[in-house]
Amino acid sequence: MTDQSEKPVRDPSAGTLYPGTSTRFYRAAFNVFPPYLFGGVRVKSIAPDWTSAHITYTVRWWNRNSPNRAAFGGTLYSMTDPFFAILAYGQLGRGYRIWNTTGSIEFLTPGRGTVATDITLSTEEVAAIRETTADGAKSLTQHTAQIFDRDGTLVARAGQTLYVRRLRD
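RESULT FIELD:
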């Protein structure tokens, strides 16, 4: 009988939603996800190499903030929330624990009409994460997304800290 304490502990949740190579699947899944579907958020594109995503939110009478008739703040943040982690996961592949440890949003002006953001996570940033985590160390990186209205006015700036650690085999 083998000693169980010698075996590395494997995270049972790691890799359960591995995106593989199908950015189309993820785009479609997000677009039918009820909070996005009914909240007016649409994932317009995810780059085939998992380096960027384009997300919009159309403010309508049923999904706006009542007092000022502008974009609901929680929905503005939700436009950015999962995407740095999803892009990292798509580029890194299986074998990593990835999650957002902190998040923030700074509201600059009321968003009306359609607002949009482009989330980017470059291959260079992911290479640095991969290098940092190669020996099992954690990586904590800061990322920012800007949300603009149709006229190009900056509506909000969302920030996140992305945690990545390579899982033991």
